Amino acid sequence: MKNILFILSLAVGMLTCHAVNVDVLDGAIALKDVKVERSQSRLILHMDIDASALKQGGNSETVLTPVLNGPDGQTYRFPEVVISGRNRYYYRLRNTPDGDTGLLYRSVKNLNVPYQSLTEYEPWMEVSELSIEYGQSDCGCDMPLTPMPLLRLDYKPRLFEPRFAFITPEAEAVKMRDLKGSAYIDFPVNRTELYPDYRRNPEELASIRKTIDVVRNDSNVTITSFSIKGFASPEGSYSNNVRLAKGRTATLKDYVQKLYAFDPAIMHTSYEPEDWEGLRRYVEKSDIANREAILAIIDSDLAPDPKNAKIQKDFPQQYAFLLREEYPALRHSDYTINYMVRTFTSVDEIKKVLRTAPQNLSLNELFLVAQSYEPGSEDYCEVFETAVRMFPDNPVANLNAANIAIQRREYAKALAYLSKAGDTPQATYAYGLIEAFEKNYDKALPLFDKAASKGLAEAAEAAKQVRDIIEHENQQK
Protein backbone atom coordinates (compact mmCIF):
# COMPACT_ATOMS: atom_id res chain seq x y z
CA MET A 1 0.00 0.00 0.00
CA LYS A 2 2.87 2.35 0.82
CA ASN A 3 4.38 1.80 -2.61
CA ILE A 4 1.11 2.68 -4.31
CA LEU A 5 0.86 5.92 -2.35
CA PHE A 6 4.48 6.76 -3.18
CA ILE A 7 3.91 6.38 -6.92
CA LEU A 8 0.76 8.47 -6.73
CA SER A 9 2.63 11.25 -4.94
CA LEU A 10 5.23 11.33 -7.70
CA ALA A 11 2.55 11.84 -10.31
CA VAL A 12 1.61 15.20 -8.81
CA GLY A 13 3.47 18.01 -10.55
CA MET A 14 5.37 15.56 -12.78
CA LEU A 15 7.46 16.94 -15.65
CA THR A 16 8.02 14.62 -18.60
CA CYS A 17 10.44 14.68 -21.51
CA HIS A 18 9.22 13.48 -24.92
CA ALA A 19 9.09 9.68 -25.29
CA VAL A 20 11.26 8.11 -28.00
CA ASN A 21 11.63 4.73 -29.68
CA VAL A 22 15.05 3.41 -30.78
CA ASP A 23 16.57 0.18 -32.01
CA VAL A 24 19.86 -1.27 -30.80
CA LEU A 25 21.98 -4.17 -31.98
CA ASP A 26 20.84 -3.71 -35.57
CA GLY A 27 17.21 -3.97 -34.56
CA ALA A 28 17.56 -7.04 -32.42
CA ILE A 29 16.29 -5.03 -29.45
CA ALA A 30 13.76 -2.23 -29.56
CA LEU A 31 13.52 0.34 -26.78
CA LYS A 32 9.97 1.63 -26.83
CA ASP A 33 8.35 4.64 -25.19
CA VAL A 34 11.56 5.73 -23.47
CA LYS A 35 10.75 8.67 -21.21
CA VAL A 36 12.04 10.34 -18.07
CA GLU A 37 9.71 11.96 -15.58
CA ARG A 38 10.73 14.33 -12.88
CA SER A 39 8.95 15.09 -9.63
CA GLN A 40 10.25 17.60 -7.13
CA SER A 41 12.70 15.10 -5.64
CA ARG A 42 12.82 12.06 -7.94
CA LEU A 43 13.77 11.17 -11.49
CA ILE A 44 11.92 8.18 -12.98
CA LEU A 45 13.02 6.32 -16.10
CA HIS A 46 10.39 4.30 -18.00
CA MET A 47 10.76 2.16 -21.10
CA ASP A 48 9.78 -1.15 -22.62
CA ILE A 49 12.61 -3.36 -23.82
CA ASP A 50 11.34 -5.51 -26.65
CA ALA A 51 13.79 -8.38 -27.17
CA SER A 52 11.51 -10.47 -29.37
CA ALA A 53 13.96 -10.42 -32.24
CA LEU A 54 17.05 -11.14 -30.12
CA LYS A 55 18.69 -14.44 -30.95
CA GLN A 56 21.71 -15.62 -28.98
CA GLY A 57 23.34 -18.85 -27.98
CA GLY A 58 23.15 -20.52 -24.58
CA ASN A 59 26.45 -19.00 -23.42
CA SER A 60 25.74 -15.50 -24.77
CA GLU A 61 24.29 -12.53 -23.01
CA THR A 62 23.36 -8.92 -23.76
CA VAL A 63 23.74 -6.07 -21.27
CA LEU A 64 21.79 -2.79 -21.46
CA THR A 65 22.65 0.05 -19.07
CA PRO A 66 20.83 3.42 -19.09
CA VAL A 67 23.26 6.21 -18.20
CA LEU A 68 22.57 9.85 -17.37
CA ASN A 69 25.42 12.28 -18.15
CA GLY A 70 25.58 15.84 -16.83
CA PRO A 71 27.12 18.93 -18.46
CA ASP A 72 30.26 18.87 -16.27
CA GLY A 73 31.08 15.19 -16.30
CA GLN A 74 28.51 14.07 -13.75
CA THR A 75 27.20 10.52 -14.30
CA TYR A 76 24.46 8.35 -12.92
CA ARG A 77 24.15 4.73 -14.05
CA PHE A 78 20.70 3.19 -13.78
CA PRO A 79 20.42 -0.53 -12.99
CA GLU A 80 21.51 -2.64 -15.94
CA VAL A 81 19.34 -5.18 -17.72
CA VAL A 82 20.98 -8.52 -18.51
CA ILE A 83 19.40 -10.84 -21.10
CA SER A 84 21.19 -14.19 -21.06
CA GLY A 85 21.11 -17.39 -23.04
CA ARG A 86 20.04 -20.53 -21.21
CA ASN A 87 23.46 -21.55 -19.86
CA ARG A 88 24.53 -18.05 -18.82
CA TYR A 89 21.14 -17.42 -17.22
CA TYR A 90 21.41 -20.43 -14.91
CA TYR A 91 25.07 -19.77 -14.27
CA ARG A 92 24.18 -16.30 -12.95
CA LEU A 93 21.39 -17.69 -10.82
CA ARG A 94 23.75 -20.18 -9.17
CA ASN A 95 26.73 -17.84 -8.72
CA THR A 96 25.21 -14.50 -7.74
CA PRO A 97 25.73 -13.84 -3.99
CA ASP A 98 22.53 -13.86 -1.96
CA GLY A 99 20.56 -14.58 -5.09
CA ASP A 100 20.46 -10.88 -6.00
CA THR A 101 20.26 -11.24 -9.75
CA GLY A 102 18.65 -7.83 -10.29
CA LEU A 103 17.22 -7.32 -13.75
CA LEU A 104 18.24 -10.68 -15.15
CA TYR A 105 16.13 -12.21 -17.91
CA ARG A 106 16.43 -15.38 -19.91
CA SER A 107 16.52 -14.93 -23.65
CA VAL A 108 13.27 -16.44 -24.92
CA LYS A 109 10.89 -15.87 -27.79
CA ASN A 110 8.69 -12.74 -27.49
CA LEU A 111 10.62 -11.44 -24.48
CA ASN A 112 9.39 -8.00 -23.38
CA VAL A 113 10.86 -6.28 -20.33
CA PRO A 114 9.02 -3.36 -18.67
CA TYR A 115 11.69 -1.15 -17.18
CA GLN A 116 11.24 1.47 -14.47
CA SER A 117 13.87 2.92 -12.16
CA LEU A 118 13.93 5.78 -9.64
CA THR A 119 16.77 7.96 -8.48
CA GLU A 120 17.08 11.05 -6.31
CA TYR A 121 16.91 14.21 -8.42
CA GLU A 122 20.06 16.34 -8.29
CA PRO A 123 20.46 19.90 -9.68
CA TRP A 124 22.90 18.82 -12.39
CA MET A 125 20.21 16.63 -13.92
CA GLU A 126 18.20 19.71 -14.92
CA VAL A 127 19.96 19.73 -18.30
CA SER A 128 21.49 16.32 -19.05
CA GLU A 129 21.50 13.49 -21.58
CA LEU A 130 20.19 9.98 -21.27
CA SER A 131 21.95 7.27 -23.28
CA ILE A 132 21.90 3.50 -23.38
CA GLU A 133 25.13 1.54 -23.18
CA TYR A 134 24.89 -1.92 -24.67
CA GLY A 135 27.12 -4.83 -25.44
CA GLN A 136 27.17 -8.60 -26.12
CA SER A 137 29.45 -11.41 -25.02
CA ASP A 138 29.69 -15.07 -25.94
CA CYS A 139 32.11 -16.04 -23.18
CA GLY A 140 30.92 -14.42 -19.99
CA CYS A 141 33.94 -12.15 -19.95
CA ASP A 142 33.97 -8.37 -19.69
CA MET A 143 32.46 -6.80 -22.79
CA PRO A 144 32.97 -3.38 -24.35
CA LEU A 145 29.84 -1.24 -24.14
CA THR A 146 28.63 1.01 -26.95
CA PRO A 147 26.77 4.20 -25.96
CA MET A 148 23.76 5.43 -27.90
CA PRO A 149 22.03 8.78 -27.09
CA LEU A 150 18.36 8.47 -26.26
CA LEU A 151 17.01 11.70 -24.76
CA ARG A 152 18.16 15.16 -23.93
CA LEU A 153 16.61 16.14 -20.61
CA ASP A 154 15.86 19.80 -20.15
CA TYR A 155 13.82 20.73 -17.10
CA LYS A 156 15.21 24.24 -16.97
CA PRO A 157 12.34 26.75 -16.78
CA ARG A 158 11.86 28.80 -19.94
CA LEU A 159 11.91 32.48 -19.09
CA PHE A 160 10.55 35.21 -21.31
CA GLU A 161 13.37 37.73 -21.42
CA PRO A 162 12.75 40.02 -24.39
CA ARG A 163 14.61 43.09 -25.49
CA PHE A 164 12.59 46.29 -25.44
CA ALA A 165 12.28 48.34 -28.61
CA PHE A 166 12.76 51.99 -27.75
CA ILE A 167 12.69 54.64 -30.48
CA THR A 168 15.39 57.29 -30.67
CA PRO A 169 13.60 60.64 -31.13
CA GLU A 170 14.67 62.91 -33.94
CA ALA A 171 16.57 66.02 -32.94
CA GLU A 172 14.70 69.32 -33.11
CA ALA A 173 16.27 71.73 -35.59
CA VAL A 174 14.88 74.66 -33.58
CA LYS A 175 13.50 74.20 -30.07
CA MET A 176 10.51 76.51 -29.74
CA ARG A 177 8.64 76.58 -26.45
CA ASP A 178 5.92 78.65 -24.83
CA LEU A 179 4.50 79.52 -21.43
CA LYS A 180 0.87 80.46 -21.06
CA GLY A 181 -1.21 82.03 -18.36
CA SER A 182 -4.43 83.88 -17.63
CA ALA A 183 -4.73 87.06 -15.59
CA TYR A 184 -7.96 88.37 -14.04
CA ILE A 185 -7.28 92.07 -13.87
CA ASP A 186 -9.82 94.25 -12.09
CA PHE A 187 -10.71 97.42 -13.96
CA PRO A 188 -13.11 100.08 -12.69
CA VAL A 189 -16.61 99.60 -14.10
CA ASN A 190 -16.76 100.56 -17.76
CA ARG A 191 -13.15 101.88 -17.69
CA THR A 192 -9.89 100.77 -19.32
CA GLU A 193 -7.35 102.32 -16.94
CA LEU A 194 -5.13 99.87 -15.07
CA TYR A 195 -4.52 100.47 -11.36
CA PRO A 196 -1.82 98.06 -10.07
CA ASP A 197 -3.03 98.30 -6.46
CA TYR A 198 -6.75 97.97 -7.23
CA ARG A 199 -8.51 94.97 -5.63
CA ARG A 200 -6.74 91.70 -6.60
CA ASN A 201 -4.49 93.33 -9.20
CA PRO A 202 -1.26 93.04 -7.16
CA GLU A 203 -1.53 89.22 -7.16
CA GLU A 204 -2.58 88.98 -10.82
CA LEU A 205 0.15 91.29 -12.07
CA ALA A 206 2.73 89.49 -9.93
CA SER A 207 1.72 86.23 -11.64
CA ILE A 208 2.35 87.77 -15.06
CA ARG A 209 5.74 89.11 -13.98
CA LYS A 210 6.73 85.75 -12.50
CA THR A 211 5.90 83.96 -15.75
CA ILE A 212 7.93 86.43 -17.78
CA ASP A 213 10.85 86.34 -15.33
CA VAL A 214 11.10 82.54 -15.47
CA VAL A 215 11.89 82.81 -19.17
CA ARG A 216 13.67 86.17 -19.20
CA ASN A 217 16.17 85.14 -16.51
CA ASP A 218 17.12 81.88 -18.24
CA SER A 219 20.37 82.39 -20.15
CA ASN A 220 19.60 79.39 -22.36
CA VAL A 221 16.52 80.94 -23.98
CA THR A 222 15.59 83.85 -26.22
CA ILE A 223 12.10 85.36 -26.10
CA THR A 224 10.66 85.58 -29.60
CA SER A 225 7.19 86.99 -28.88
CA PHE A 226 4.83 88.07 -26.12
CA SER A 227 1.13 88.09 -26.92
CA ILE A 228 -1.95 89.11 -24.97
CA LYS A 229 -5.57 88.37 -25.79
CA GLY A 230 -8.21 90.23 -23.78
CA PHE A 231 -11.75 88.99 -23.12
CA ALA A 232 -14.85 90.74 -21.81
CA SER A 233 -18.02 89.15 -20.44
CA PRO A 234 -21.33 89.13 -22.37
CA GLU A 235 -23.34 91.55 -20.22
CA GLY A 236 -23.78 95.07 -21.60
CA SER A 237 -23.80 96.06 -25.24
CA TYR A 238 -21.52 94.31 -27.69
CA SER A 239 -20.15 97.57 -29.02
CA ASN A 240 -19.13 98.71 -25.54
CA ASN A 241 -17.57 95.33 -24.84
CA VAL A 242 -15.48 95.73 -27.99
CA ARG A 243 -14.18 99.02 -26.58
CA LEU A 244 -13.48 97.51 -23.17
CA ALA A 245 -11.75 94.34 -24.43
CA LYS A 246 -9.61 96.27 -26.90
CA GLY A 247 -8.75 99.10 -24.52
CA ARG A 248 -7.95 96.91 -21.51
CA THR A 249 -5.73 94.66 -23.64
CA ALA A 250 -3.79 97.68 -24.87
CA THR A 251 -3.45 98.97 -21.31
CA LEU A 252 -2.01 95.65 -20.10
CA LYS A 253 0.40 95.58 -23.04
CA ASP A 254 1.66 99.06 -22.11
CA TYR A 255 2.15 97.94 -18.51
CA VAL A 256 4.32 94.97 -19.59
CA GLN A 257 6.22 97.07 -22.11
CA LYS A 258 7.15 99.70 -19.53
CA LEU A 259 8.37 97.02 -17.07
CA TYR A 260 10.51 95.04 -19.48
CA ALA A 261 11.26 97.32 -22.42
CA PHE A 262 10.56 94.53 -24.90
CA ASP A 263 11.20 95.19 -28.56
CA PRO A 264 7.82 96.42 -29.84
CA ALA A 265 8.13 93.99 -32.74
CA ILE A 266 7.67 90.98 -30.44
CA MET A 267 4.59 92.40 -28.68
CA HIS A 268 1.25 91.23 -30.07
CA THR A 269 -2.34 91.81 -28.93
CA SER A 270 -5.80 90.60 -29.86
CA TYR A 271 -9.16 90.64 -28.15
CA GLU A 272 -12.49 88.84 -27.86
CA PRO A 273 -15.32 91.26 -26.99
CA GLU A 274 -17.43 88.56 -25.28
CA ASP A 275 -16.20 85.17 -24.09
CA TRP A 276 -19.15 83.01 -25.11
CA GLU A 277 -16.94 79.91 -25.41
CA GLY A 278 -15.86 80.28 -21.81
CA LEU A 279 -19.48 80.68 -20.72
CA ARG A 280 -20.49 77.59 -22.67
CA ARG A 281 -17.76 75.47 -21.05
CA TYR A 282 -18.87 76.53 -17.62
CA VAL A 283 -22.59 75.86 -18.23
CA GLU A 284 -21.90 72.48 -19.86
CA LYS A 285 -19.94 71.25 -16.85
CA SER A 286 -22.38 72.67 -14.30
CA ASP A 287 -25.61 71.25 -12.90
CA ILE A 288 -27.45 74.55 -13.28
CA ALA A 289 -31.19 74.30 -13.82
CA ASN A 290 -32.34 74.46 -17.47
CA ARG A 291 -28.77 73.77 -18.55
CA GLU A 292 -29.68 72.30 -21.94
CA ALA A 293 -32.01 75.16 -22.80
CA ILE A 294 -29.36 77.72 -21.86
CA LEU A 295 -26.78 75.87 -23.95
CA ALA A 296 -29.19 75.92 -26.89
CA ILE A 297 -29.42 79.71 -26.66
CA ILE A 298 -25.62 80.02 -26.41
CA ASP A 299 -25.24 77.80 -29.51
CA SER A 300 -27.93 79.64 -31.47
CA ASP A 301 -27.33 82.04 -34.37
CA LEU A 302 -28.63 85.00 -32.39
CA ALA A 303 -26.42 88.08 -32.28
CA PRO A 304 -24.56 88.63 -28.99
CA ASP A 305 -26.88 91.26 -27.49
CA PRO A 306 -30.16 89.38 -28.21
CA LYS A 307 -28.54 86.15 -27.04
CA ASN A 308 -27.61 87.63 -23.66
CA ALA A 309 -31.02 89.28 -23.37
CA LYS A 310 -32.85 86.00 -24.08
CA ILE A 311 -31.00 84.13 -21.36
CA GLN A 312 -31.79 86.98 -18.94
CA LYS A 313 -35.49 87.04 -19.97
CA ASP A 314 -36.16 83.26 -20.16
CA PHE A 315 -34.11 82.20 -17.16
CA PRO A 316 -33.78 85.17 -14.82
CA GLN A 317 -32.68 83.14 -11.77
CA GLN A 318 -30.00 81.28 -13.66
CA TYR A 319 -28.86 84.49 -15.37
CA ALA A 320 -28.47 86.23 -12.02
CA PHE A 321 -26.41 83.28 -10.79
CA LEU A 322 -24.18 83.34 -13.89
CA LEU A 323 -23.77 87.10 -13.68
CA ARG A 324 -22.61 86.80 -10.10
CA GLU A 325 -20.59 83.56 -10.19
CA GLU A 326 -19.23 83.16 -13.71
CA TYR A 327 -19.26 86.43 -15.64
CA PRO A 328 -16.38 87.93 -13.63
CA ALA A 329 -14.17 84.98 -14.66
CA LEU A 330 -14.98 85.72 -18.31
CA ARG A 331 -13.16 89.04 -18.03
CA HIS A 332 -9.59 87.83 -18.39
CA SER A 333 -6.40 88.38 -20.30
CA ASP A 334 -4.64 85.32 -21.69
CA TYR A 335 -0.94 85.73 -22.37
CA THR A 336 1.68 83.63 -24.10
CA ILE A 337 5.46 83.90 -24.10
CA ASN A 338 7.09 82.17 -27.05
CA TYR A 339 10.80 81.51 -26.76
CA MET A 340 13.63 79.59 -28.39
CA VAL A 341 15.92 77.29 -26.40
CA ARG A 342 19.47 76.54 -27.41
CA THR A 343 20.58 72.96 -28.09
CA PHE A 344 22.38 71.01 -25.36
CA THR A 345 24.99 68.41 -26.31
CA SER A 346 26.78 67.64 -23.03
CA VAL A 347 25.18 64.90 -20.92
CA ASP A 348 26.23 66.66 -17.73
CA GLU A 349 24.63 69.87 -18.93
CA ILE A 350 21.45 68.06 -19.91
CA LYS A 351 21.27 66.49 -16.44
CA LYS A 352 21.51 69.95 -14.88
CA VAL A 353 18.73 71.33 -17.09
CA LEU A 354 16.66 68.22 -16.36
CA ARG A 355 16.69 69.11 -12.66
CA THR A 356 15.87 72.80 -13.13
CA ALA A 357 13.95 73.29 -16.41
CA PRO A 358 13.02 69.97 -18.06
CA GLN A 359 10.64 71.78 -20.40
CA ASN A 360 13.69 73.25 -22.16
CA LEU A 361 14.94 69.82 -23.27
CA SER A 362 14.05 68.08 -26.48
CA LEU A 363 12.99 64.45 -26.64
CA ASN A 364 16.30 63.66 -28.29
CA GLU A 365 18.23 65.30 -25.46
CA LEU A 366 16.21 63.41 -22.87
CA PHE A 367 16.87 60.15 -24.70
CA LEU A 368 20.58 60.98 -24.82
CA VAL A 369 20.79 61.44 -21.06
CA ALA A 370 18.75 58.27 -20.45
CA GLN A 371 21.46 56.26 -22.23
CA SER A 372 23.96 57.41 -19.61
CA TYR A 373 22.08 55.49 -16.91
CA GLU A 374 21.90 51.77 -16.27
CA PRO A 375 18.91 50.39 -18.23
CA GLY A 376 16.04 49.69 -15.85
CA SER A 377 17.48 51.85 -13.06
CA GLU A 378 15.32 54.42 -11.31
CA ASP A 379 17.17 57.30 -13.01
CA TYR A 380 16.78 55.63 -16.39
CA CYS A 381 13.04 55.11 -15.96
CA GLU A 382 12.50 58.59 -14.53
CA VAL A 383 13.94 60.24 -17.64
CA PHE A 384 11.42 58.50 -19.90
CA GLU A 385 8.56 59.37 -17.57
CA THR A 386 9.71 62.98 -17.54
CA ALA A 387 9.78 62.92 -21.33
CA VAL A 388 6.15 61.86 -21.60
CA ARG A 389 5.12 64.50 -19.06
CA MET A 390 6.85 67.17 -21.14
CA PHE A 391 5.48 65.80 -24.43
CA PRO A 392 2.19 64.11 -23.45
CA ASP A 393 0.88 63.71 -27.01
CA ASN A 394 4.11 62.72 -28.72
CA PRO A 395 3.96 59.12 -30.10
CA VAL A 396 7.67 58.44 -29.50
CA ALA A 397 7.54 59.71 -25.92
CA ASN A 398 4.47 57.57 -25.26
CA LEU A 399 6.01 54.46 -26.84
CA ASN A 400 9.17 54.76 -24.76
CA ALA A 401 7.19 55.44 -21.58
CA ALA A 402 5.04 52.39 -22.34
CA ASN A 403 8.18 50.26 -22.46
CA ILE A 404 9.17 51.52 -19.01
CA ALA A 405 5.71 50.73 -17.66
CA ILE A 406 5.84 47.22 -19.15
CA GLN A 407 9.23 46.63 -17.54
CA ARG A 408 7.62 47.54 -14.21
CA ARG A 409 4.62 45.30 -15.01
CA GLU A 410 2.32 48.33 -14.89
CA TYR A 411 0.23 47.14 -17.81
CA ALA A 412 -2.77 49.48 -17.44
CA LYS A 413 -0.39 52.43 -17.45
CA ALA A 414 1.42 51.01 -20.47
CA LEU A 415 -1.82 50.60 -22.41
CA ALA A 416 -2.72 54.24 -21.73
CA TYR A 417 0.62 55.31 -23.19
CA LEU A 418 0.28 52.95 -26.15
CA SER A 419 -3.06 54.52 -27.05
CA LYS A 420 -1.00 57.57 -28.06
CA ALA A 421 1.98 55.70 -29.50
CA GLY A 422 0.77 55.35 -33.08
CA ASP A 423 0.79 52.31 -35.35
CA THR A 424 4.50 51.53 -35.53
CA PRO A 425 6.12 48.07 -35.40
CA GLN A 426 7.52 49.06 -31.98
CA ALA A 427 4.01 49.81 -30.68
CA THR A 428 2.66 46.52 -32.06
CA TYR A 429 5.57 44.74 -30.39
CA ALA A 430 4.86 46.48 -27.08
CA TYR A 431 1.24 45.25 -27.15
CA GLY A 432 2.64 41.77 -27.73
CA LEU A 433 4.98 42.11 -24.76
CA ILE A 434 2.06 42.79 -22.45
CA GLU A 435 0.23 39.68 -23.71
CA ALA A 436 3.38 37.54 -23.39
CA PHE A 437 4.13 38.66 -19.85
CA GLU A 438 0.50 37.85 -19.02
CA LYS A 439 1.16 34.40 -20.57
CA ASN A 440 -1.41 35.00 -23.31
CA TYR A 441 0.96 33.48 -25.84
CA ASP A 442 -1.73 32.87 -28.46
CA LYS A 443 -2.37 36.62 -28.54
CA ALA A 444 1.28 37.64 -28.29
CA LEU A 445 2.60 35.60 -31.21
CA PRO A 446 0.53 37.28 -33.98
CA LEU A 447 1.63 40.67 -32.69
CA PHE A 448 5.28 39.63 -32.61
CA ASP A 449 5.04 38.14 -36.08
CA LYS A 450 3.41 41.29 -37.43
CA ALA A 451 6.14 43.50 -35.97
CA ALA A 452 8.84 41.09 -37.14
CA SER A 453 7.46 41.15 -40.68
CA LYS A 454 8.17 44.88 -40.70
CA GLY A 455 11.81 44.32 -39.83
CA LEU A 456 11.80 44.59 -36.04
CA ALA A 457 14.51 42.18 -34.88
CA GLU A 458 13.41 42.33 -31.23
CA ALA A 459 9.99 40.99 -32.23
CA ALA A 460 11.45 38.05 -34.16
CA GLU A 461 13.59 37.15 -31.16
CA ALA A 462 10.63 37.41 -28.76
CA ALA A 463 8.50 35.20 -31.03
CA LYS A 464 11.24 32.56 -30.96
CA GLN A 465 11.34 32.69 -27.15
CA VAL A 466 7.58 32.31 -26.89
CA ARG A 467 7.51 29.37 -29.29
CA ASP A 468 10.28 27.72 -27.27
CA ILE A 469 8.27 28.25 -24.07
CA ILE A 470 5.15 26.75 -25.67
CA GLU A 471 7.08 23.73 -26.95
CA HIS A 472 8.73 23.21 -23.58
CA GLU A 473 5.41 23.42 -21.75
CA ASN A 474 3.87 20.90 -24.15
CA GLN A 475 6.76 18.53 -23.50
CA GLN A 476 6.08 18.67 -19.80
CA LYS A 477 2.42 17.73 -20.15
Describe this structure in words.
- The protein is α+β, with helices and mostly antiparallel strands and 477 residues long.
- 41% of the residues lie in helices and 23% in strands.
- It has 16 helices and 15 strands.
- The strands form three sheets. Strands 5, 6, 7, 8, 10 and 11 form a six-stranded mixed sheet that branches. Strands 1, 2, 3, 4 and 9 form a five-stranded antiparallel sheet that branches.
- Strand 5 and strand 6 form a beta hairpin.
- Helix 14 packs antiparallel against helix 15.
- It is elongated.
- The two termini are 27 Å apart.
- The N terminus is likely disordered.
Number of strands: 15
How far apart the termini lie comes to 27 Å
The total count of helices amounts to 16
Low-confidence stretches: 1-13
Please tell me how large the radius of gyration is: 42 Å
The fraction of residues in strands falls at 15-25%
The biggest sheet amounts to: 6 strands, mixed
Structural class comes to alpha+beta
Q: Give the overall form.
A: elongated
Q: Fraction of residues in helices?
A: 40-55%
Overall residue-averaged pLDDT value: 91
